[in-house]
Amino acid sequence: MYPQTGAFSQPPASKWEQEAGTCPSSSSCVASESCVCLPGSQCSEGCLQQQDAAGIYSTEAFSLEESSCAYQECGSTSGQTQWRGDFPEQTGRLELLQMIRCQMDVEQEVHPPRQFLDPHRQAAAAGSSDFLTPGMRMIVASWMVEVAEEFRLQQETLHLATGLLDRFLSSTQDVPRCVLQLLAVACMMLAAKDLEVVQPTVEQFCAVTANHFKRQDLLRMERIVLDVLEFRLSSPSSYTFLHLLAQACSHCVTPSVLSLAMYVCELAVLEYDMHQYPHSTRAGAALLLSQLSLGAAAHLPNVASVVAALGIPVDELAGCMESLLSLQKAAFQHTLAAAAAAAGCGAAAQSCEVGDLLAPLRTKYGHACWCDVSGVPPIAALPPAYVWAAY
Questions:
Q1: 223 lies in which domain range?
Q2: Which tens digits make up the pLDDT trace of 61-87?
Q3: Which of 19, 77, 137, 158 has its CA at 20 to 30 Å from residue 370's CA atom?
Q4: Contact (CB, 8 A) for 143 and 212
Q5: Are 313 and 356 in contact (CB under 8 A)?
Q6: Across the chain, where does the E strand assignment appear?
Q7: Same domain? 154 vs 255
Q8: What CATH number corresponds to the domain at position 363?
């Protein structure tokens, strides 16, 4: 989404600046095109990036570079975590909390109702055979994870696409199951247009459906989604809140902790019942749960104090953590069953079929670039709710 030269690097100089000798690139303090060093750090090419004093490019500092464990694309040779750009020193925790609260206000406006598939269930009760179920939604959401991996889309794009899907389903009642995949592809295409620098073409999106839908079908569905959502695409997701919380707790959140939190949040994306919790609650609960799962209890008070400052009720936070822990345990059991099936156990192969929908996530987060967090054993139980109230 952002250029690889760092969030605070100088903009490219014009031709006349280069000829006049005033080009900022001629200075030894500006990073080269391939430099991904942190602002204020010495890079491998001997240059030192300088942060823009006026804060012109500060809007790009709100995202993290995908490198190393949680942020590096698989296959990269970099062995060190590269952050997209830390917040300037004058931007403190209070400013970050204000940003999160603003996103929470937006979330209240666009978040789908808790049981948005109930009208479809009522249609089923009335005798209709063409209705949607939570299981169907989970199937298409799991397929969207595979599509995002196929096109190497950003995490934010995947979360936005599933959010558009849920918002559309909550706004309409007569969605035939035969167009659910077409709807999912249209949401993926809209999210990619909104967030990706280079988007897959319409033909490529049609190809992932085995050309079951034509180009005009996809473009027509795209217009329908835009009309239903009134062209309001941007909405905060668990990814949005998780990264803002990670910035607020950057001194105590490791790449492995953040990778596990992102894994748990994506498990929640597949589960329909998790819509009873807002994305902000899910992100805070996932971050606390990952701290516990990886034995980072020493930093738990710092993270818990930041989450508590958002005004999330303790009971709601504890309930969300319990639900996320149940999802993690179920996914871990399916991981063990898949490993047993690969070893040739026939009995395990049958139980592994239940977790086929989780296979894309297991594979994705089983890579070293995500610190292999899908294989992290979940904790046995959570501390009592009053522990969080103490913070």
A1: 112-228
A2: 333 333 344 444 444 333 333 333 444
A3: 137
A4: no
A5: no
A6: none
A7: no
A8: 1.10.472.10
